[in-house]
């Protein structure tokens, strides 16, 4: 199959995999085999029955990949589900992303929500939405703004980790703030708000308002806000 051929799906049906230049889905289509594309745009509903590899992908409708996914640049404004492992180099999630195995890449910007059954590993992870990560969230820089609901990760590890509560600007009169729950949070430089954790470990640890922490272990400095609860702290 020629690599420059386009696949345009306006109706509904099943279509072959292979290599394409551009794929556009405005109807409802299933791609039955492995597929590669330079550009993949989903306005309707699509299912990739095997693995997907593409340069740029935009999902404004619904997309499901049954196998693994390897993408350079992903924007999700609708919903996307990946059944296997996902290497998504640069992501911006305004809708929802569900990954059934591991997720990794370079830059993650989450304004909607993500759910990952395995580990998540990025260079930079920036979230002002919500997430549920069953494994380890690991990044050099982690910045989390807690606007609403409860975000969860089994463990969080990184270099600089900043977790702050943030009122929802769209609903300024709503008093509810978001929370984060993790068993272990470990990094070099930590600042936490509205966080529940069994163990927090780092060089410099600042526990801000709204936190409930079981154990804090620190090497250099430890500061605790008067509106935070820390059961035990020790210098290591």
- Cα(first) to Cα(last) distance is 61 Å
- Which structural class should the secondary elements be placed in? mainly beta
Average pLDDT over all residues: 94
Total number of helices:
0
Major β-sheet annotation: 22 strands, parallel
- Would you count the extended β strands for me? 22
Protein name: Cytoplasmic protein
Organism: Bacillus salipaludis
Written account of the structure:
The chain is mainly β and 236 residues long. The protein folds into 2 domains: 1-101, no CATH class; 135-236, no CATH class. It is built from no helices and 22 strands. The protein has strands at 7-9, 12-15, 18-25, 28-31, 35-42, 45-48, 52-59, 62-65, 69-76, 79-82, 86-93, 96-99, 103-104, 107-110, 113-116, 120-127, 130-146, 150-165, 179-192, 195-207, 212-224, 229-235. The protein has a 22-stranded parallel sheet that branches. It is elongated and about 60 Å long.
Architecture blueprint of SSEs:
Blueprint (H helix, E strand, L loop, with lengths): L6 E3 L2 E4 L2 E8 L2 E4 L3 E8 L2 E4 L3 E8 L2 E4 L3 E8 L2 E4 L3 E8 L2 E4 L3 E2 L2 E4 L2 E4 L3 E8 L2 E17 L3 E16 L13 E14 L2 E13 L4 E13 L4 E7 L1
Parallel strand pairs: 1-3, 2-4, 3-5, 4-6, 5-7, 6-8, 7-9, 8-10, 9-11, 10-12, 11-13, 11-14, 12-15, 13-16, 14-16, 15-17, 16-17, 17-18, 18-19, 19-20, 20-21, 21-22
Give me some keywords for this one.
mainly beta, 236 residues, 22-stranded parallel β-sheet, 2 domains, elongated
């Amino acid at each position: 199959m020629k690599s420059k051929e386009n696949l345009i799906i306006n109706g509904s049906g099943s279509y072959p995999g292979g290599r394409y230049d551009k794929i556009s889905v405005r109807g409802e289509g299933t791609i039955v085999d492995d597929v590669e594309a330079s550009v993949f745009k989903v306005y309707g509903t699509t299912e990739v029955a095997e693995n997907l590899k593409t340069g740029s992908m935009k999902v404004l409708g619904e997309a499901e990949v049954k196998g693994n996914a390897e993408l350079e640049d992903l924007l999700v404004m609708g919903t996307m589900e990946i059944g296997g492992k996902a290497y998504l180099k640069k992501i911006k999630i305004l809708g929802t992303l569900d990954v059934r195995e591991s997720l990794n890449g370079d830059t993650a910007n989450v304004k909607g929500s993500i759910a990952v059954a395995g580990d998540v590993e990025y260079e930079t992870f920036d979230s002002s939405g919500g997430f549920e990560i069953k494994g380890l969230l690991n990044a050099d820089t982690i910045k989390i703004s807690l606007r609403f609901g409860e975000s969860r990760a089994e463990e969080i590890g990184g270099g600089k980790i900043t977790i702050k509560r943030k009122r929802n600007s769209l609903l300024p009169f709503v008093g509810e703030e978001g929370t984060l729950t993790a068993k272990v949070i470990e990094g070099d430089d930590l600042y936490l708000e509205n966080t529940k954790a069994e163990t927090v470990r780092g060089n410099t640890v600042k526990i801000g308002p709204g936190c409930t922490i079981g154990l804090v272990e620190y090497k250099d400095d430890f500061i605790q806000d008067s509106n935070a609860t820390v059961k035990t702290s020790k210098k290591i």
